[in-house]
Amino acid sequence: MGAPSPLRLGYYPFVPSVSIAPIRKERPLNAADHESPSVTIEQSVITLDHVDKSFGSFVAVRDLVLDVAPGEFFALLGPSGCGKTTTLRMIAGFDQPTSGRVLLGGHDQAGIPPHKRSINTVFQQYALFPHLSVFDNVAFGPRSRKMSGAAVVEAVERLLDIVHMEEFSKRKPAQLSGGQQQRVALARALVNRPSALLLDEPLAALDQKLRQVMQFELKRIQRETGTTFVLVTHDQEEALSMSDRIAVMSQGRIEQIGSPSEIYRTPATMFVAGFIGTANMLPATVVDIKGATATVALADGTRTRTNRMQSGVAVGKAVTLMLRPESMQLTSTRPDGPSVAVTISDATFQGAHTRLALRTDDGAMFLGHGKGAAQVGEQGWLTWPDNDAFLLAGEARSVGATGTDVDLVEASL
Amino acid sequence: MDGRIARRGWVPYALLAPGLAWLVLFFVVPLFSLGRKSLERGGLHNYSKVFSDNAAVIGRTFLYALAATMGALVLGYPLAYVIATRGGRAKNLLLALVVLPFFTTYLIRTIAWKVLLFGDGPVVRFLRFTHVFGRNSELLGTHWAVIGALTYNFLPFMVLPIYVSLEKIDPRLLEAGIDLYATPIATFRRVTLPLSMPGVFAGSLLTFIPAAGDFVNAELLGSDGQRMIGNIIAKNFEKDVFRPKISALSFVLMVVILSGVLLYARFLGTEDVI
Questions:
Q1: What rounded mean pLDDT belongs to chain B?
Q2: Which of A128, A130, A141 lies closest to B181 in CB terms?
Q3: Mean pLDDT confidence for A110-117
Q4: I need a surface site. Which of A99, A194, B73, B193 has the fewest CB within 10 A?
Q5: What pTM, to 2 d.p., does this model score?
Q6: Could B180 and A94 be called an inter-chain contact, meaning their C-beta atoms sit closer than 8 Å?
Q7: How far is Cα A83 from Cα A62, in angstroms, rounded to an integer?
Q8: A140 touches chain B (CB under 8 A)
Q9: Does residue A120 belong to the interface with chain B, where contact is any CB pair within 8 Å?
Q10: Which residue of A has its CA nearest to B191?
């Protein structure tokens, strides 16, 4: 990593401590390549085999291929209308694929109705039965399976204990808070010991603070029950913090499947780069590639090097430098390395850090993190260490930070 | 004190006052005078006399209203269910068709039944033809005619509340039932049916109460053997509005209806119905 220049703005960047493995050029980064090769149809809990789903002329899901391994916390992440909920409904059996196969434990589920599938769903807004008590809600599944009375009581009490709701077993759902209803919904699904639990935007109805606590709760419950979780969410922070693997979806397709850090550090497509976290995009041209390191020239002619790039990056081609806010540093004097001259146009205190909006002379907006006081109007240079930039093939739709346009952000929710 | 808060104090009363005054003037006062009248010349003895004289009619009224309510429920629930769950775009049209008979006056509708059911009418001819009925059997002047017409006349009162309560059920609850290993039929029994009970309750009351107080159906389609409390009250009030025993009979009718309602509420356990 390049040595940070002295900082006069009282601002220290957060530098990721995890070392980044160089991505070799021979290994192209595309969706198919990210599937874990160790997972085969026989041992995976859920398999989608080239699944398509259309409603009339509208294609909701296109050629979906994925495997979910036992015990995995898997997330389907994407903006609304990307097909993630349709995918979940096909796994649960509420919708049938137009073509392709859905397999559970290696068995084709074609024509098998939801009540005969060994998976359960936590619905958006929970869908608890309003006329039944907490106990009877949780007992619904075991009673459907004609479990004996004593076994029902034992199973329900065990689950209510796991979700810390044993004191509330006599209450009706309307007498519970959102977080409590959420936990009852979890217990109601998990009591059946499903081979996988499907969660449709499980935290969307909760407020910010509760959401973060529930993320830990979900992880704990997943560990304690050893159940495979498949989470559908539009909230990338939720997916990043909880999942073992994430499938990023857009317009009915999977853009990339990978671990949270893979998706964050080495996005397979421009969409993934923009959708996951904040990315600062800078247009550049590849000047030279030596070994694993590419040298690129920015618009103003300054050069920077990085060994992290997508496939398809070649000498002479237009590329986009993707820089995360936490790897960009603001210096008050022009550094030796690559840099962009900026003016602080906005500083938002966010507790752990200050979010800085930085405007270039061309009017492009960059986002960076700062610590301590930052003065709006102050000028400086944005710089970054070698190898912190990731090269995306092709030109970005716009220069600067993604996720700053209100309309675009809203459309992605 | 803040003026806004002070105003908030009297606004609800101002809104209540006209309706309350109307009810006091035209419901409570007449009821009270009727009650007082029913105790004149004989006191509570009027009630025991009315009861013993009209025991058969009182019992019949209760049974007719009960039968009509059950008939409307059996016919109305599936109707409301299909409209609510399978209606699709035709929902509003189907609901309009349910209400359509109301565009004709109640009296004409009942007279139309008389035309349908009379001795040489289509219904009786069909029943004789299929040998359900003997050669000289009639429909007019039977229990069936009166109960059938009561059922028909109050069916929309059963369908609409049930439709509303079915319509309100979140479809995700049914998906949750199926997701939790219940078959579609079990999901209906364990989720849909209990959640539609408020509609069943309301619909049953809206059918039972007017059916118990009705006299038009028995008057037009029945004979002496089908008389209901309403017929006796109607006939005697024509002669003398102020006869104590008729006033007492009116109160008996009220008690019949009220006890029906209370029994029903107890049977269903309304506090559990949301």
A1: 86
A2: A141
A3: 92
A4: A99
A5: 0.78
A6: no
A7: 9
A8: yes
A9: yes
A10: A129
Residue range A60-109, pLDDT digits in tens: 999 999 999 999 999 999 988 899 999 999 999 999 999 999 999 989 99
The residues that bridge with A340 in the sheet, in sequence order, are A382
Question: CA gyration radius for chain B?
Answer: 23
Phi, psi of A348 (to 5 degrees): -115, 120
Question: Which amino acid does the sequence have at A166?
Answer: E
| Mean confidence (pLDDT) of chain A | 83
Contacts of B181 in chain A (CB under 8 A): 115-116, 141, 144-145, 192
Q: How far is A216 from chain B (nearest CA, A)?
A: 25
* Residue A141 touches partner B, C-beta closer than 8 Å: yes
A173 at interface of B, judged by CB pairs closer than 8 A: no
Question: Is any Cβ of chain B less than 8 angstroms from the Cβ of A55?
Answer: no
**The tokens of B272 are what?**
């559990």
In this predicted structure, what is the pLDDT of residue A303?
85
Sheet of A99-104, strand order: A58-68, A46-55, A99-104, A107-108
- Residue numbers in A near B188 (CB within 8 A): none
What single string gives the DSSP state of each residue in B177-234? Answer: HHHTT--HHHHIIIIIHHHHHHHHHHHHHHHHHHHHH--HHHHHH--GGG--HHHHHH
Q: What percentage of chain B's residues is helix, strand, coil (to nearest 5)?
A: 80, 0, 20
What gap in Å lies between CA A55 and CA A45, rounded to an integer? 27
User: What is the domain range of residue B151?
Assistant: 39-268
Q: How close B209 comes to chain A (CA, Å)?
A: 27
| A253-258 and A245-250 strand pairing | antiparallel
Domain count, chain B: 1
Q: Which residue has the tokens 């990307």?
A: A82
Region of A193 (left: φ > 0; alpha: ψ -120 to 50; beta: rest) is left
CB atoms within 10 A of CB B215: 18
Q: How confident is the model at residue A12 (pLDDT cuts 50, 70, 90)?
A: very low
Residue with tokens 């109805």: A205
Asked if the structure places residue B226 within a domain, the reply is yes
pLDDT band at A11 (very low <50, low <70, confident <90, very high): very low
Please check whether residue A96 is in contact with residue A66, taking contact to mean a CB–CB distance below 8 angstroms: no
Q: Which two tokens stand for residue A15?
A: 């530098």
Look up residue B80 and give its two tokens. 């409301």
Put simply, the answer to whether A125 touches B175 (Cβ < 8 Å) is no
- Residue A285 host element (H or E): strand A280-290
pLDDT recorded at residue A184: 95
| Res. B245: pLDDT tops 60 | yes
Q: How far is CA A343 from CA A9, A40, A362, A374, A380, in A?
A: 12, 52, 11, 11, 6
Q: Are strands A119-122 and A390-393 parallel, antiparallel or unpaired?
A: unpaired
- B270 near A CB under 8 A: no
By the CB < 8 Å criterion, does B11 face chain A? no
Q: How far is B172 from chain A (nearest CA, A)?
A: 6
If pLDDT is split at 50, 70 and 90, which confidence band does A5 have? very low
Which residues of chain A are within 8 Å of residue B175 when distances are taken between CB atoms? 94, 114, 121, 123, 127
pLDDT at B1 over 70: no
Mean pLDDT along residues A284-303:
86
Please report, for the domain that includes residue B52, its CATH number.
1.10.3720.10
Does a structural domain hold residue B184?
yes
For residue B171, tell me if it sits in a domain.
yes
| Residue to test with chain B: of A131, A138, A190, most B Cβ within 10 A | A131
Instruction: Please tell me which residue of chain B has the smallest CA distance to A128.
Output: B173
Give the nearest partner residue to B176 out of A127, A131, A174, using CB atoms: A127
What's the residue count for chain A?
Answer: 413
Q: Would B11 be classed as within a structural domain?
A: no
